[in-house]
Design brief:
heterotrimer; A mainly alpha (123); B mainly alpha (333); C mainly alpha (164); A: mainly alpha; Methane Monooxygenase Hydroxylase, Chain G, domain 1; 61% helix; flat; C: 164 residues; mainly alpha; Four Helix Bundle (Hemerythrin (Met), subunit A); 2 domains; globular
């Protein structure tokens, strides 16, 4: 990969670096907090006109926790599925059996999570 | 091996550098992003029997996006009290870089591609996975209730549709046997557009990518009628422009990816240059996604999560089975 | 050019790992952890392991860091520890240990003495797929069992028992 010229990924990283540089320069030139007449009303959090009370970071949604867990697990499973899908033509039906059992085993916690997520009193 | 300075000079004077800076790189991304804001407003207006932007230029208000940018640049920059300044400013900046990174992976025409990475498809999806994290950070950083709720909604919305998005792209990988986007286009050159064997996958892809872009009907994090612009609520003038930019850049990137995966990318009869084919297909998909906005009501978060993990996941598995039967069952393809 | 990029990636990775450990505000620490994983993904790219790099970004940063961020935001700012004082002895020890580990590690790795591309035939993506499914099929099953057990355990622990 590094034998001739510049490898593809270095070019990509260079592109991202150029994008970052352009953005940072734009920001420095353009955006600097300029507030010649600061008033307390300006800096108050927006709540459609009423006076905001209480801390800003409340109202956590915790009853969807099973979905986050299943998301993490299935993201890992997707990684293995992509590896399987790459060589599907050569692996054929016999090569799919490990992946089939893999998926079946992975569907059991999904069923449990969906069952739990449906019961809202648990959260 | 030549020393770094020579290599840098070599790089800057090459056409690759022009590709990075002009097209399909940074300048074209910025201009097209501004153009698509006008396009969406005009299209939505016509659907609603209105006129839309009209006055900012002699030709139907086409410079409206640029006029908005100039206006927003001169506004006062007010950061709310108690807000986390670093994440407040850095989240939209990083989202813009992510948008540019997405467009760097796509083959616009044979030879015009910033990064021909051999894992182009999962790289695209992996990079786009990072954007709801940034929305969560942006919503948290504003220290205000509406943005925080919007940020949390973005997090949970991601858990609903992300897996069906990966699995619908899996069908394409199964049939073509390659992860690189140029490889997928080359497969379609020999074997026809992938939308035919993967019709279900294409539908799933467009639905889940609309959810990824947080557009209607999946714009819960930004629900204008419920939580007042959600996570974008506290963003002042210039930062608001930076926040709106990634939405349209992601739209452009996803439409480009859809046309690359399912519609053959830049392929087409040779009368018209490939780049024009590419943009024609991309704009068709963009118009379709913009029309979703005017057609469907917003989903609710628990509906979305439930349906994502039951209906969408089941359909993705059905799509995988269909692709499996196509690959293993019909060896001629 | 490659060495410069490697140096940059390594610096970013190590610096954000230190930041992830030492940051007082845990949200900054979680975000720094994300940057560390991003640096690691870049390093994976330079080791010709582009598949691993891509899924490192997708799974680690896209899912795990998001989960950590959510938990950190739930817990709140009062749980962060105050920053440690920088004692000279601990700094010297850290330097010596990292030098020792780095030297030992680099001497024992296969790429210590550069030669022709030592990857062989199994290094491309198709080879990865084939090897993973055929040769490592049984560990794949165990992996799914471990994941299933982790999820069921986490859900059982996390749900509140409201009886009566």
């Amino acid at each position: 990969m590094v034998s001739q010229g510049i490898p593809e990924e270095t070019g990509y990283i260079l592109f991202l670096f150029a994008a970052t540089l352009a953005l940072v320069i734009t920001l420095r030139l353009v955006i600097s907090p300029r507030d010649p007449k600061p008033t307390p009303e300006k800096r108050a959090p927006f709540e459609s006109g009423q006076i905001a009370t209480g801390p800003g970071r409340t109202r956590f949604i915790i009853q969807y926790y099973p979905y986050i867990l299943m998301f993490v697990v299935y993201d890992v499973i997707a990684m293995f599925l992509f590896a399987w899908a790459l060589d599907l033509r050569a692996l054929g039906a016999s090569g799919t059996i490990p992946v089939l059992t893999f998926m079946v085993v992975a569907l059991v916690p999904l069923a449990y999570a969906l069952h739990l997520a449906g019961q809202r009193e648990n959260w | 091996m030549p020393d770094p300075v020579t290599q840098i000079i070599q790089l800057v004077t090459s056409t690759y550098f022009l590709e990075i800076v002009l097209f399909p790189g940074l300048t074209s991304i910025a201009i097209l992003g501004a153009f698509f804001t006008w396009f969406e407003r005009k299209l939505t207006a016509r659907v609603q029997l209105r006129i839309g932007p009209l006055y900012s230029s002699p030709v139907g208000g086409i410079l409206q996006g640029f006029a908005d940018i100039i206006k927003l640049l001169f506004k006062e920059l007010i950061i709310p009290e108690g807000a986390d300044r670093f994440f407040f400013i850095m989240s939209p900046v990083t989202a813009l870089i992510i948008g540019a990174a997405l467009l760097g992976l796509i083959p616009f025409a044979p030879g015009i591609q910033i990064a021909n990475v051999e894992v182009g498809l999962p790289a695209f999806l992996a990079i786009v996975t990072l954007s709801p994290t940034l929305v969560l950070l942006a919503g948290w950083s504003a220290n205000s209730k509406f943005p925080f709720i919007g940020g949390l909604r973005a997090l949970f919305q991601q858990t609903a549709y992300e897996i069906p998005l990966w699995l619908s792209a899996l069908g394409v990988v199964m049939i073509t046997g390659t992860l690189s986007l140029t490889g997928i286009v080359q497969y379609q050159q020999n074997n026809g557009w992938l939308i035919i064997p993967q019709a279900l996958g294409a539908v799933l892809f467009i639905v889940t990518s609309t959810a990824e872009m947080e557009r209607l009907p999946f714009d819960l994090p930004e629900a204008e009628s419920e939580i007042m612009m959600g996570w974008q609520a506290e963003y002042p003038g210039p930062l608001f422009m930076l926040v709106q930019g990634p939405a349209f850049i992601k739209l452009y990137a996803f439409a480009a990816l859809f046309s690359t995966l399912y519609l053959g990318g830049y392929l087409g009869p040779a009368l018209i240059p490939p780049i024009v084919w590419f943009f024609a297909k991309t704009i068709v998909i963009i118009v379709a996604i913009m029309l979703f906005r005017s057609t469907f009501p917003r989903v609710r978060l628990d509906q979305l999560l439930r349906q994502g993990w039951t209906t969408l996941l089941t359909l993705s598995i059905v799509n995988i089975v269909i692709a499996y039967l196509i690959v293993v069952g019909v060896p001629a393809i | 050019m490659t060495d410069l990029t490697f140096l940059a990636l390594a610096t970013v990775t190590v610096a954000s790992a230190i930041l992830a450990l030492e940051a007082r505000d845990l949200v900054y620490g979680a975000a720094a952890l994300g940057i560390t994983f991003l640096g690691m993904a870049g390093l994976f790219f330079f080791l010709d392991a582009s598949y691993v790099a891509t899924f490192q970004i997708a799974v680690y940063i896209g899912a795990v860091v998001v989960l950590i961020l959510f938990t950190v935001m739930l817990v709140g700012p009062q749980m962060g520890e105050p920053p440690m004082e920088l004692k000279r002895l601990s700094l010297l020890t850290a330097l010596l240990v990292s030098l020792l580990l780095g030297t030992a590690g680099s001497l024992t790795s296969a790429n210590a003495f550069p030669g022709p591309d030592s990857c062989g035939t199994g290094c491309d993506l198709i080879g990865l797929s084939k090897t993973l499914i055929t040769q490592y099929g049984v560990p794949l099953e165990f992996l799914s069992l471990v994941l299933a057990a982790a999820v069921i355990g986490a859900l059982t622990l996390a749900k509140a028992d409201r009886k009566g």
